[in-house]
Structure formats: C-alpha cells, structure tokens
Amino acid sequence: MSMYFGQYQSQALKTAIFPDKDPTLAIAYLSLGLCGEAGEVANKIKKCIRDGNSYDGIADELGDVLWYIAVLAHYLEADTALNLDDIAARNLYKLSERAKNGTLQGSGDNR
C-alpha cells in the first residue's frame, strides 16, 4: 500500500489517544514518546549487530517513530498547518542546498 505523508498524518491523528487538552503537555508527551521509540530502534539495531541477526522487525519500530513524528508535527505546527509532506519537502530542499553549497558534512544548523 502506497501513501503520502499527509495521508499518513491524517490517519495517525485518528489513533492519537493521550492527554492533549494542554498543548504544552501534549508536546512534552509526544516528544518523550518519540525519544523512547527512537531508543527502541537503536536498541534493536544494537542487538542485531551484537547477535548477528537480520534487521527484520526494525520497520515496525520505525513506523512507531513515524507515528510520533506525524502527531508531534501536527501539534507543533498547528498554527501554520504544516503537514508531513511540507516538512519532508522542506528537509529535501535544505539538504539539496547544502549539497549545492558543499556543506552536507559538518556540524551546526547554519551550514
């Protein structure tokens, strides 16, 4: 099944059940969830390296990371109505500009 990010985000929001009455609390909750899921991805990869296993199952964990990104983006960008399609396009533009400027490598936000 193929899907655009914006479609995914709309569907993900339908499954979002967490304390969201206070936007600050919602953002904190989602940020912590994102960090936890990213940690699960890293831990599974660590175990694959340690045990020589395949990366089967990582896609499910990446899906959990994507869910948190989609829902968090909705709460962070509610005023500007940016969706994941917009965020992905902005990121690719930023990276293409860095590639054009020869600044893909390095550190810092202002490359």
Description of the structure:
The mean pLDDT is 89. 68% of the residues lie in helices and 0% in strands. The protein starts with a helix and ends in a 10-residue tail after the last helix. It is built from 4 helices and no strands. The chain is globular.
Task: Briefly characterize the structure.
This protein is an all-alpha fold and 111 residues long. The protein is 68% helix and 0% strand. The chain has helices at 5-14, 23-51, 58-76, 84-101.
Key words describing this protein structure:
globular, 4 helices, 111 residues, Helix Hairpins, mainly alpha
Write the layout of secondary structure elements.
Layout: H1 5-14, H2 23-51, H3 58-76, H4 84-101
Helix pairs in contact: 1-3, 1-4, 2-3
SSE sequence, one letter per element: HHHH
Beta-strand level of the residues, as a percent range? under 5%
Mean pLDDT, as a whole number? 89
Structure annotation, total helices: 4
